[in-house]
Amino acid sequence: MPVFYDTHAHLDYPDYAPDFPDVLARAAAAGITKIIAIGTNLDSSRRAVALAEKHPAIYAAAGWHPSDALTAPADLRPALRELARHPKVVAIGEIGLDYYRLPSLTRPAATLSHPLGEGRGEGDDVAYKQKQAEIFRQQLEVAVETGLNCIIHQRASFDDTLAQLQPFAGQTRGVFHCFGESVERLNQILEIGWLVSYTGIVTFKNGQNIRDAVAATPLDQFMLETDCPYLAPVPYRGKRGEPAFVKEIAETVAAVKQCSLAELSAATCATAAKFFPKLA
Ligand SMILES: [Zn+2]
Q1: What is the pLDDT of residues 156-187, one digit of tens each?
Q2: What's the CA-to-centroid distance between 74 and ligand 1, angstroms?
Q3: Which of 12, 59, 144, 193 has the fewest CB within 10 Å, making it most exposed?
Q4: Ligand 1 centroid vs 226 CA: distance in angstroms?
Q5: CA of 10 to the centre of ligand 1 (A)
Q6: In Å, how far from its chain's centre is CA 165?
Q7: Cβ count near 172 (within 10 Å)
Q8: 116 CA distance to ligand 1 centroid (A)?
Q9: How far is the CA of 95 from the centre of ligand 1 (A)?
């Protein structure tokens, strides 16, 4: 059976509390032999590490997600350095920038006294983006110091993300997870020697742009992931995702790459082992 890795799974989320052992058993039965549990803040990163300590197939990434930037401590680095030393912490992540839900766009519902809603202004957006940039930079610094690679999250912020990581590009490497951008942007990432990874979106009926990106990505420059519990592939679309579903993602990607599952297994596992040396 071809073996695959799930390089991005939110296994610490409460979604898995009811049936965690079954989730792991289904992953093993589907040939998913290694799973990276992703941290989204310090508590989440510590939960991911605890899972990795308990289960041989699970590894962890430690990081603070940009959407949670406003609750991050002023200096994340000491706690992150500590986590990065753990033998099963294979990367810093997920880190990056997310401009999808800016404060000015998430105003509360209109009321009688405030017919347009009590919206927050552009000043809040500036502060939010500054805090995101600050924790992104701190975490890139820890990646460089600790020799770990990064797992990059970006949404509606591609150009800023690329600009902010540029000073670090020769000192650490990153994977743009859940890649869903154009081939032109793909090439901007590959040019600096960084990687991308693909989720279940590649199986969606409206995912032709992702399949085009997969077709344009050399076989040794991408990895597979579920981003579960989000983005379950067809035929599970809309349901809770889980690591076993890498199998369905791999089948679609192999069809796009016109290669066998065995070839895709060998290529993606080798890429992951090289990118995350502690995954060995
Ligand atoms: Zn994620």
Answers
A1: 999 999 999 999 999 999 999 999 999 999 99
A2: 23
A3: 193
A4: 9
A5: 6
A6: 16
A7: 22
A8: 33
A9: 9
Looking at residue 87, its amino acid is: P
Chain centroid, CA 269 distance in Å: 17
Residue 33 is encoded by which pair of tokens? 């032999």
- CA of 258 from ligand 1 middle (Å) equals 28
What is the Cα–Cα distance from 181 to 192, expressed in whole angstroms? 16
- Residue pair 161/96 in contact (Cβ under 8 Å)? The answer is yes
- The H-or-E segment that residue 90 falls in is strand 89-98
Preceding amide of 181 cis, omega within 30: no
Q: What is the pLDDT of residues 81-109, one digit of tens each?
A: 999 999 999 999 999 999 998 888 775 55
How many angstroms is it from 227 CA to the middle of ligand 1?
5
Residue 62, beta-bridge partner list: 92
Read off the amino acid at residue 20.
F
With a pLDDT cut of 70, the percent of the chain lying above it is 94
Q: What is the pLDDT of residue 115?
A: 47
Distance, C-alpha 6 to centroid of its chain = 11
Output the CA–CA distances (angstroms, integers) from residue 33 to 3, 25, 55, 217, 252, in the order listed: 7, 10, 11, 24, 19
